[in-house]
Amino acid sequence: MRPHRNPARKQALREAFSELARSGLVELSADGAIATRRWRAALSRAALAMIQQHGDTDDPRFPIALALYRIYGDRESDGKLADKVEVMLSLQERENDWLRVLARGGVDDGRLGE
Questions:
Q1: Which residue has the higher pLDDT, 107 or 49?
Q2: Contacts of 95 (CB under 8 A, 6+ apart)
Q3: Strand 26-29, strand 32-35: pairing
Q4: Is the pLDDT assigned to residue 113 strictly greater than 50?
Q5: pLDDT beyond 60 at 109
Q6: Tens digit of pLDDT for each residue in 6-50?
Q7: CB atoms within 10 A of CB 12
Q8: CA pair distance 91, 108, nearest whole angstrom
Q9: Distances in Å between the alpha carbon of 58 and those of 3, 37, 52, 61, 100?
Q10: Is the terminal CB of the chain with fewer CB neighbours within 10 Å at N or C?
């Protein structure tokens, strides 16, 4: 996640991560936080639905928000849902960086996600 200086904001994002982990959408590994298969499947379904209904979008927040809304529905406040979107977007960006390094034949030197 992007560093936040505001302690209350940090706490809100920690709580969002914990809720995502309890829901089986993220987990901690030796490499840090990773998305689970359950999350990847939910994101794929949301992205496909968005493409079918609205065409492709360059903003990755939309399918992430749709996937989370489909999982949590109206049980989550807008603020808590937005916190979860921020956590998942950060995780997705980190994973995409790692995939780009692999695609170029490079090796992760440990600086990804900093």
A1: 49
A2: 34, 35
A3: antiparallel
A4: no
A5: no
A6: 899 999 999 999 999 999 999 998 878 889 999 999 999 999 998
A7: 18
A8: 16
A9: 24, 23, 15, 9, 17
A10: C
CA distance 15 to 21: 10
What pLDDT score does 99 carry? Answer: 61
Burial bucket for residue 8 (CB in 10 Å: 0-12, 13-18, 19+):
exposed
User: Bigger pLDDT: 59 or 81?
Assistant: 81
Q: Could you tell me the two tokens for 69? A: 């809304």
Contact 18, 28 (CB under 8 A): no
**pLDDT reported for residue 110:** 54
The C-alpha atoms of residue 67 and residue 61 are separated, in whole angstroms, by 10
DSSP secondary structure string for all residues of 53-106: HH---S-THHHHHHHHHHHHGGGS-HHHHHHHHHHHHHHHHHHHHHHHHHHTT-
Both tokens of residue 94?
A: 């980190």
Query: DSSP assignment, residue 8?
Result: H
